[in-house]
Amino acid sequence: MRVALISMTPVFPAKAGHSVRILQLCKAIRALGHELTFVHVSSKLDTQKPDTASHVEFFGEQHYLHLHDGPRGARAVFWLRGKLRRRWRKILCGLGYEHSHYSRLDENWRNAWTHQLRALDRRFDAVVVEYAFNSRALDAFPASTRKLLDTHDAFADRHRPFVVRGFRKGYWVSLKPQDENRGLRRADAVIAIQAQEAEHFRQQLTRDGAVERNPEIAVVSHFIGLDQPVPDHSVDHAALYVGTNMLSNQISLGQFLEHVLPRVVSAIPDFRLRLAGSICNWAPDLPNVEKLGFVDDLRLAFARAPLSVNPTIAGTGINIKLLDAMGAGVPTISTLTGARGLGAQFRNGLRVVPDHDHDAFADHVIRLSKDADLRRSLGLAAFADAQRWNEGQLAALDRCLRGDTFTDVVPSPHAPRRDRWPDPRSASAAPTAA
Description:
Blueprint: E1 2-7, H1 17-31, E2 35-40, H2 52-59, E3 64-66, H3 72-94, H4 111-118, E4 126-130, E5 146-150, H5 160-164, H6 177-184, E6 189-192, H7 195-207, E7 216-219, E8 238-242, H8 247-267, E9 272-276, E10 289-293, H9 298-304, E11 308-310, H10 320-328, E12 332-335, E13 350-353, H11 358-370, H12 372-402
Parallel strand pairs: 1-2, 1-4, 2-3, 4-5, 5-6, 6-7, 8-9, 9-10, 11-12, 12-13
Helix pairs in contact: 8-11, 10-12
Keywords: Transferase
GO molecular function: transferase activity
Pfam families: Glyco_trans_1_4 (PF13692)
């Protein structure tokens, strides 16, 4: 099949969880034997500058397209409309109106992009668009093309959990449910990252009628970058936290630093918490905290701290930092919220504690950071889970692309395993800082 993937997020450099998901999705599409063209649009919703040379090297010059933003006059009108919308929302916010939190579905999509997509001198069997608020791209393709929407998350009323906790920002984009539904219905199939989100979309689509136009709902979760598990678990008294500098990570890491780390240091004075990713820009300087910054190869970071901590207490979707540790063959201590979306059959290398149970979290960190043999055995179990996980996601993606009848896939514990995840590029899997 000839497949196009349209994204506002570049996959090189892959510095955050969403870019890593898209990169691994691209690898999976190619591993299935399909011809893939990557189409990039520059949106203010993702200001990461693409590494053009790396994109061309990975996809090939004929299969990497960057769409321009249109003529100067159209760009000026687009900018002015955006500025007026932001000012109006600021006024509404000052007056206490909830409407100030909502974005329009298509407000960040440019007409010039639609024109360029329609003018492409190639035909695709399937097209994948990243995020519901970019779903207008699907309208540029004929009905004969299978249209898929990779949602990443649910954006209807996304602001509400943040506002309840006193945060006016941090939710990125919030859509009215009827607007998100309109975006979902542009697709033949909607891809959710976990079963709970798939059911949420089904119920949300059913509530506003027009059931006959509802798309298929599939579950294709994140693909885990697999190479080889970390071979050496001998480094004691250390753990790794991977994260981007986003509000949910700040909240979660802040609680860990305040409540869990002091308990651990009391028992192990030379304990080191190593941080990787842009969360280092936010994290305070503390005696037992070491900031690694952005790490090109997470396996090297895990080799320096073969124990992952995932103290997540905020946010939505499957936690990519959890999958990163599984792919590296490293055990993880996680809160219940941090383990969301990961079924019990994939938790063999995981220790889960209730949210806000700081004593239990600290106890697990203390025990595992002292016991290399236990870390190694749990890490191998995590890596085996990662292999089975990828097999299931690959099967679900294949059915989704082809339009076969499908159900949510949960691989059997006895599903065949691959020693290595198919990787069209010889370089190791890109890091994430989710």
